[in-house]
Amino acid sequence: MSSAEPHARSRQRGSWHRRATRPVQIWMIALVIMGVVHRWVPASTWVIVHLFTLGLITNSILVWGQHFTETLLHRRPPDSARAIQVRRIMVLNGGIVVLVAGMIAAFPAAVIAGAAIVGGAVTWYIVDLVRQIRAAAPTRFKPIVKYYAVAAAFLPAGAIAGAFMGIGVPEEWAIRLHAFHLAVNVLGFVGITVLTTLVTFWATVLRAPMAKGQDEAATQSLVLLSVSVVAVALASLTGAWLITAAALVVYLGAVLWHLYYLARMARSTPPREFASMSIGCGLIWLPLAVGWAAWLVADGRVADLGAVTVPLLAGAAAQILFGAMSFLMPTVMRGGPAAVRAGMIEMNRLAMFRLVLVNAGLIVFLLPGGTSWTRVVGSSLAFLGFVLFLPVMIRAVRAQLAVIRETAALRAAGKKPARVSADTPRPEIAPGARRNIAGAVAAALVVVLATGTALAVDPSSPLRRANNDVVVAPTGNTTTVEVAAVGMRFVPDAVTVPAGDRLKIVFTNDDDTNVHDLYLTNGTDSGRVEPGDTVTIDAGVIGRSLEGWCTIAGHRAMGMTFAVHVEGGDPAQVGGEGSGAGGMGPGSDGHSMHDRGGGPTDAIDVLSPPSDDVVTRDPVLEPAPTGRVHRVTFTVEETVDELAPGVRRPVWTYNGEMPGPTLRGKVGDEFVVTLRNEGTMGHSIDFHAGDVSPDEVMRTIPPGEELEYRFTVKRAGAWLYHCATMPMTGHVAAGMFGALIVDPPDLPEVDREYLLVESESYLGAEDEPFDMAKIAAEQPDLVMFNGHATQYRRDPLTARVGETVRIWVVVAGPSDGTAFHVVGSQFDTVYKEGGYLLRDGRDAFGGRGGGAQVLDLAPAQGGFVEMTFAEPGRYTFVDHSFADAEKGATGFIDVE
Asked: Which residues form the Plastocyanin-like domain (predicted)?
């Protein structure tokens, strides 16, 4: 064998790992991007979780599971098998792309297809592993290697469950499938793979011998882990939750048994590098998360199992994955001891800084009693700690490649690389104690400053509450009261507390559909409480009377107010600083019109074009699709959009559009609408075209749920659909409306056909979608066609001389009608609310030669007009209620 052959083989092996792990790097970048833009992506939480679990973890398991199988069996497959293994990785990632795209687009067929491809790729991997294990000669670790295949066998079952959850199942089954999914995918596929790997890999990372008896004990614990995962999965499917809890306890015991031997090695050879320290941190989070899951199930809180996702995935899985990659990537790149050392040194950059940032951030995020601000700070810090792996990894690859190229250049020149004698000092791979202490202190300062800033700014934080409280001598007593949210009221809506008592409120959301919260003017905040959930609020020592309310937009105006009276105190004190009818608090929508100095429209130029990044809503009305059954999915999304030049506000939408998607059909067509609520509060939908009982299909559904709304359109017309959740005016004003056009049976074709949906906007503060006081006073700030006040002045509708143009108009309101008029033109056909008032110049009685100037519609009415332009030019369409036109209800039609 020539001296070049070992180097060539080393390069080939490193090349295979680089090709196979390339998708991991791509998904890592995608995950970082998603972390920044998730607010504007549908199903973003699901996407982030699955970019990590499928994109990073599953890809890594298929690559490194193969690597460790070869290493432990001492059996390397032929080079021809590498192409097949890479092809399998590509199939897996194709399935992940289809699955994620299907979930974002709410396309069930793609979700099912993607899950099937992912499950198929992993099944292919299992078959290949089994063949390799059977063909291998007996080795010390052969009994352990088979658990790579056992662990992988859990994922196809999890993929099936995930597909069902993705397309929607009833609530009870959603809870069962979520627990099943967690068991087989996280505890089975990920957990058993990780613990199988660490039997030998932990010693390698520590550069220490294995503990005595470790492999035998590991084999026994892996059996127990596998059996307990099966028990958790089956018990979850059948709803036998006590068995589920017991099986989780068994799983926890097996994990601790496994970790006992790993801890023994760490005691004799403490972790000193980022790889071993990161893996060690992950191994601490793993039993904590499993124990938490067992406690939740045993306590009857199965629906809260999602709470363990962060410690299981971010705390345990992510830290173990990044730790393993920090060690494996330089190792498999090879290039000789000097090259590997160069890569390892870079992988340890900022080691302790990154670890403290991640783990302290997770602790801040998970601390009980934390506020929304501290949760954002905690998650951001942990995310930053993980993101720093990318530049460190890039530096490591560059450093290692530089040494490899330098060595290759010397060999090409006929020179041998300089040998390093045993006496020559080498740079330490592991960071020194001083560097670790400095990194830990720096990260701790970042965490303390960020968290302290959040506590200082957040009005619901203990610091702000302490500043707002009146000094009073504490009595040492605690008054505990029970308060429920029922419909749009607090029951009771007032309590009396002795001065100096500590007040604890046991707050239960007894509303079946709506999310609620309770905010007090001393800064106490319950946070958002899901239907059926109960939280205990510590309002502190009460020294003055307080006002409270629900901060969900519109709920306070609907009557969700609360009062805390001090026994013997002055009733005039209620509310204190910042309270009262015009008081301001988080989500307050009771604003005084006189406090504003001027209406928001004073600064709006309704003659200016939209901002450059605004995409004009296409007003062209497409023909009715073929077929008699139309299946659509409406996803509730709460986002931010521009309503007029320079005016951006939160909006609540169907499918991210304002108005929602336009539907069209013919009399007798059936519509099957799936409504999916991915907002932060309860929402619903009411189709005026549906002749059905509203009890079931129009009910409000809480976040995370969905319903199917099925109806047959029996009559023609321009029908409105909208959210029917209270306050209905607020939900409609926020953007939750759209049109369903049902063609009259004899509707002729025309040259151009447009749809304009008119609505009003009542601008609240910059972070509020509407102002209930303005809605009640019927004082809109903007009146718009298709969701933007000036879009059709910049991008006019178009027509040609002599063409017949039909414009459908639907009024969404919530409270204002329209007098639709086209300046310079007349209507020869007017269709309103299911009937013709004028058709080709003939009225309902057959009279000829008539024309119309206005289509008058009340809120929720619809119709269309037809006209033919005799001359070229720019025509203006307006709401002839000119006060509304001057608030934006105007646009152009360019006629050539």
From this structure: 640-745
Q: What is the pLDDT of residues 52-66, one digit of tens each?
A: 888 888 888 898 888
Q: 406 and 482 share a domain?
A: no
Q: Which residues contact 826 (CB under 8 A, 6 or more apart)?
A: 851, 852, 853, 867
**Average of per-residue pLDDT across 109-117:** 89
Name residue, tokens 């720019």: 874
Q: Does one domain contain both 297 and 352?
A: no
Percent of the chain with pLDDT over 70: 88
d(CA 357, CA 322) in angstroms, rounded, equals 14
Contact 896, 866 (CB under 8 A): no
Concatenated DSSP letters of 708-775: EEEEE--S-EEEEEE--SSSHHHHHHTT-EEEEEEE-TTPPP-SEEEEEEEEEE---STT-S--HHHH
Dihedral-angle region of residue 707 (phi above 0 means left; psi in -120 to 50 means alpha; beta otherwise): beta
For 122-156, the pLDDT digits (tens) are: 999 999 999 988 988 888 888 888 999 999 999 99
pLDDT of the residue at 608: 81
Q: Indicate if 537 and 664 belong to the same structural domain.
A: no
pTM: 0.58
Distances, alpha carbon 813 to alpha carbons 185, 775, 810, in Å: 48, 11, 9
Rounded alpha-carbon distances, angstroms, from residue 796 to 57, 72, 792, 891: 50, 69, 5, 7
Q: Are residues 351 and 321 in the same domain?
A: no
Q: Which two tokens stand for residue 248?
A: 């989780």
Q: Which residues contact 4 (CB under 8 A, 6 or more apart)?
A: none
852, 761: one domain: yes
Is the separation of the CB atoms in 652 and 692 below 8 Å?
Answer: no
Give domain status of residue 400, yes or no: yes
Residue 250 phi, psi dihedral angles, 5° rounding: -65, -45
Specify the number of domains making up the chain.
Answer: 5
Task: Say if residues 330 and 289 touch (Cβ distance below 8 Å).
Answer: no
Same domain, 319 and 354: no
Distance (Å, whole) CA 675 – CA 634:
5
The answer to whether residue 10 scores a pLDDT higher than 50 is no
Instruction: Single out the residue of 522, 538, 548 nearest to residue 469, CA to CA.
Output: 522
Backbone angles phi and psi of 815, in degrees to 5: -130, -10
Which of the residue ranges 271-285, 481-495, 498-512 has the most confident prediction, judged by mean pLDDT?
271-285
What CA–CA distance (Å, rounded) separates 598 from 884?
Answer: 18
Of the candidates 650, 645, 646, 655, the residue with the CA atom closest to the CA atom of residue 675 = 655
Residue 617 lies in a domain: no
- Distance between CA atoms of residues 237 and 878, nearest Å: 59
Do 281 and 324 meet the contact criterion of CB atoms below 8 Å apart?
no
Report the candidate in 822, 552, 567, 521 with the shortest Cα–Cα distance to residue 683.
552
Confidence of residue 1 (pLDDT cuts 50, 70, 90): very low
**Per-residue pLDDT, 581:** 33
Last residue of a domain, one of 582, 616, 638: 582
Same-domain pairing of 832 and 864: yes
Q: Is residue 239 part of a domain?
A: yes
Supply the range of the domain harboring residue 105: 13-168
125 and 199 together in one domain: no
Could you tell me the pLDDT band of residue 46, with boundaries at 50, 70 and 90?
Answer: confident
In a domain, 721, yes or no: yes
**Distances in whole angstroms, Cα of residue 330 to Cα of each of 397, 648, 793:** 7, 48, 59
CA distance 280 to 205: 11
CATH of the domain at 472: 2.60.40.420
Per-residue pLDDT at 588 exceeds 50: no
Would you tell me how many other CB atoms lie within 10 Å of the CB of residue 730?
Answer: 28
Residue 640 main-chain phi, psi, to 5 deg = -130, 140
Each residue of 308-344: pLDDT tens digit?
988 999 999 999 999 998 998 888 776 788 888 888 9
